[in-house]
């Protein structure tokens, strides 16, 4: 592990720079440091005066981030967090104007270029897509993956971003993808706070990065605390680089190069990052830079004060070892600048920051003022007493928000509900027109909205020859994957047991032998990193299929799926995408830990990811074909007990498509509509045979996808015929079945077609015990389905269908 110390003397004997050139570089860096510090101080004031809602800043980390920015080249990637403002300013990822625009939550994407007002301040991202949703040339950009607030959350995708460079360097079949890499020379720079190294995802990624030897430089900003909790409570030995020593590379094998440097040591920081970047870029060896003795002059955020938990001695130390102050003194001692020159730099920085802050605030207020004036003008034309008070209140508000403007309009329209006038009509027209604008401002881009959406993929029917082979379902999947791998070198698959044995159910059997271990490969048991790997690879132009062995295990990756992948399009307002496919299997297998169907969790956490629940492997194959032609992320949940069930092999197994969100009637009927999906669908079909004997005809609808849900409203159309509804699934009571009911009864207005109470049939509230008996008494069985349908008919006609029990 390398340690560096402050170098006060300056030796230029071997330098190509003149001393004056050297001085100018140092002075410019100091100007950046001062600017960034003033941004933090002024930003906090803006929060405390009420002009902004919340602030979190990077003060105390200026010098380390300036040194890091010096080695950040076009094509490189940043996977950082909300303390990286100095790095963002110096590298050009963001500007002071954009920073303050984000602080004020300006919804104009030209003002807050990172998120269009959707993220809190200091969450940076680069626009990776053009207006048509096509990838920009990443090799000429300084790429920043969109930040998330989840502590440690930036680690997972770092693995994929770095692995992409590895694959672009070693897999020559990818050399044509020149917009994404220049021979794998790109480094991913991941920044994380010292407290967040306690997170499990940090250790997952450190382990995986060491295994794969990805070109990453992971900086740990160590200011000694995690909010109020000191390192001694956070970390063994109170020092993360001491703990990580076992990962240090040596002559016996691969590992990390680990550096330790003080955050106020400007020269040492520059030297350290130059070495680390060179090792990562040229040798593809990951590096850790532990930056210690950092300070946090304003505490954690604008919501608290660090004086509450730091001693007087610690607070004084932070004053004495403030990185900006230390650099200032070093510049004076080394003769790099005079006191007068530094004062001039500081005054100039203050003026510039204030100008940019005022410009950002002015532009934000102009947007608000424009709509405020329009509303005031429209309301002033309405000669009604009920308008007077809302109008006066709105005018008197010193700094109104869009919320107040639109709330006033809606209040007035409610008050005028019995009135008709041209003036009211003008207000109503204005409101409806602005709703389109506000939809774009605040509710757009949850999914891809370009022609690359999977909803725009043309439907191609599966074709079968006269002598179509009858095979295991797993063989259909295997043939589908092989056909796609042949067509597209960008596709790769990975997960636990995916490589050598072709996954536990043989969907990828033999494909590693055919396409090599750079395209089909095993991973360790680290679900968060598997998903993060997929995200990073996808955003760098590849088409990953990331496998999570069982649906239950998806929960271990939920923060990465929910916080990072699902929200990516929304939080960047459509400027970034990661078309990763997550493949897993679940439902009917017996036992507490392999039989879960946590659809409630997925529906609540994964808005922004399509959720596909195919009934068999042919439907799954068609969905994979659709997804590989489009650019949205998706989760495909295969039926675990369906791999050895017999299916016909389509002639066009790699080409036919199954549209997402299109339900299908599997059996026509007249008495009750039964809606289901996945493995329970086969049980419903079995139950239908006995129900026929009883004299009850059920119509069976396979929804096929939970997100999007039944886009053609087939469920409601079926209800128009039967007027009765049963929803069957394996989630807990009130889980996915409640969502399905809401979609059918409310969204599709199926409520108006009901003649009897709709019912749901789900699993019990607990997980199923092991064994067939446990499964029978826990999850919907054929008997349960028959009796639930019978109960509906008993309520309708008790004479024909008397009580059973």
TrEMBL record:
Gene3D superfamilies: 3.40.50.920, 3.40.50.970. InterPro entries: DH_E1 (IPR001017), THDP-binding (IPR029061), Transketo_C/PFOR_II (IPR009014), Transketolase-like_Pyr-bd (IPR005475), Transketolase_C (IPR033248). Residues 471-645 form the Transketolase-like pyrimidine-binding domain. Its cofactor is thiamine diphosphate. The keyword Glycoprotein does not apply. SMART domains: Transket_pyr. The keyword Magnesium does not apply. Keywords: Oxidoreductase, Thiamine pyrophosphate. E1 component of the 2-oxoglutarate dehydrogenase (OGDH) complex which catalyzes the decarboxylation of 2-oxoglutarate, the first step in the conversion of 2-oxoglutarate to succinyl-CoA and CO(2). PANTHER family: PYRUVATE DEHYDROGENASE E1 COMPONENT BETA SUBUNIT (PTHR43257), PYRUVATE DEHYDROGENASE E1 COMPONENT SUBUNIT BETA (PTHR43257:SF2). This is Thiamine pyrophosphate-dependent enzyme. It comes from Sphingobacterium tabacisoli.
């Amino acid at each position: 592990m390398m340690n560096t110390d402050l170098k006060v003397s300056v030796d230029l004997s071997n330098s190509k720079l003149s001393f004056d050139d050297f001085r100018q570089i140092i002075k410019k860096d100091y100007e950046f440091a001062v600017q960034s510090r003033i941004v933090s101080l002024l930003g906090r004031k803006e929060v405390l005066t009420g002009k902004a809602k919340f602030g979190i800043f990077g003060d105390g980390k200026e010098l380390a981030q300036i040194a890091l920015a010096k080695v950040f080249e076009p094509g490189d990637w940043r996977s950082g967090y909300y303390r990286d403002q100095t790095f963002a300013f110096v590298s050009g990822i963001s500007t002071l104007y954009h920073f303050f625009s984000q602080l004020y939550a300006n919804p104009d994407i030209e003002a807050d270029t990172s998120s269009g007002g959707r993220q809190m301040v200091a969450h940076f991202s680069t626009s990776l897509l053009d207006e048509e949703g096509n990838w920009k040339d990443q090799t000429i950009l300084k790429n920043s993956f969109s930040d998330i607030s989840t502590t440690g959350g930036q680690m997972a995708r770092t693995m994929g971003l770095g692995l992409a460079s590895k694959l672009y360097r070693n897999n020559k079949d990818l050399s044509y993808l020149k917009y994404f890499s220049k021979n794998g020379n790109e480094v991913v720079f991941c920044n994380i706070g010292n407290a967040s190294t306690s997170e499990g995802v940090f250790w997952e990624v450190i382990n995986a990065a060491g295994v794969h030897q990805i070109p990453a430089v992971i900086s740990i900003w160590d200011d000694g605390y995690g909010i109020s909790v000191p390192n001694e409570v956070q970390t063994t030995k109170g020092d993360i680089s001491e703990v990580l020593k076992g990962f240090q590379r040596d002559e016996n094998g691969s590992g990390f190069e680990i550096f330790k440097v003080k955050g106020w040591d400007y020269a040492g920081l520059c030297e350290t990052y130059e070495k680390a970047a060179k090792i990562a870029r040229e040798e593809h060896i990951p590096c850790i830079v532990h930056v210690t003795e950092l300070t946090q002059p304003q505490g954690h955020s604008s919501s608290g004060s660090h004086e509450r938990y730091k001693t007087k001695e610690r607070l004084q130390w932070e004053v004495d070892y403030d990185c900006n102050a230390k650099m200032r003194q070093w510049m004076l001692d080394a003769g790099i600048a005079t006191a007068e020159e530094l004062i001039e730099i500081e005054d100039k920085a203050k003026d510039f920051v204030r100008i940019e802050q005022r410009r950002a605030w002015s532009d934000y207020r102009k947007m608000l003022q424009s709509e405020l004036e329009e509303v005031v003008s429209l309301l002033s034309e309405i000669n009604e007493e009920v308008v007077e008070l809302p109008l006066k209140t709105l005018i008197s508000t010193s700094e109104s928000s869009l919320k107040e403007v639109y709330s006033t309009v809606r209040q007035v329209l409610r008050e005028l509900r019995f009135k008709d006038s041209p003036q009211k009509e003008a207000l109503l027209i204005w409101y409806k027109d602005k709703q389109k604008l506000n939809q774009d401002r605040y509710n757009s881009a949850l999914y891809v909205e370009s022609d690359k959406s999977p909803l725009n993929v043309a439907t191609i029917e599966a074709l079968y020859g006269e002598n179509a082979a009858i095979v295991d379902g797993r063989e259909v999947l295997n043939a589908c994957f092989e056909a796609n791998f042949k067509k597209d070198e960008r596709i790769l698959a990975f997960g636990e047991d995916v490589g050598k044995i072709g996954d536990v159910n043989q969907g990828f059997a033999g494909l590693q032998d055919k396409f090599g271990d750079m395209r089909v490969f095993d991973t360790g048991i680290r679900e968060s990193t598997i998903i993060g790997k997929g995200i990073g690879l996808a955003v760098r132009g590849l088409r990953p299929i990331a496998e999570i062995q069982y649906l239950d295990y998806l929960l271990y990756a939920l923060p990465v799926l929910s916080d990072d992948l699902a929200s990516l399009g929304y939080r960047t307002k459509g400027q970034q995408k990661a078309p990763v496919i997550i493949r897993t299997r679940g439902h009917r297998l017996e036992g507490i830990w392999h039989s879960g169907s946590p659809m409630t969790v997925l529906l609540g956490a994964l808005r922004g990811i399509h959720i596909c629940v195919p009934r068999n492997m042919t439907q799954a194959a068609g969905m994979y074909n659709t997804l590989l032609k489009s650019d949205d992320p998706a989760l495909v949940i295969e039926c675990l007990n369906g791999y050895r069930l017999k299916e016909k092999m389509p002639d066009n197994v790699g080409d036919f498509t199954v549209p997402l969100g299109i339900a299908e009637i599997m059996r026509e009927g007249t008495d009750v509509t039964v809606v289901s999906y996945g493995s329970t669908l086969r049980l419903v079909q079995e139950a239908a045979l006995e129900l026929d004997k009883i004299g009850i005809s059920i119509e069976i609808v396979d929804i096929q996808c939970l997100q999007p849900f039944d886009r053609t409203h087939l469920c409601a159309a079926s209800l128009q015929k039967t007027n009765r509804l049963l929803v069957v699934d394996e989630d807990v009571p009130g889980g996915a079945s409640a969502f399905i009911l809401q979609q059918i009864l409310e969204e599709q207005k199926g409520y108006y077609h009901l003649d009897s109470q709709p019912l749901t049939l789900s699993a019990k509230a607990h997980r199923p015990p092991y064994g067939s008996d446990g499964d029978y008494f826990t999850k919907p069985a054929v008997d349960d389905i028959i009796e639930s349908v019978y109960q509906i008919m008993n309520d309708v006609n008790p004479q024909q269908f008397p009580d059973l029990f």
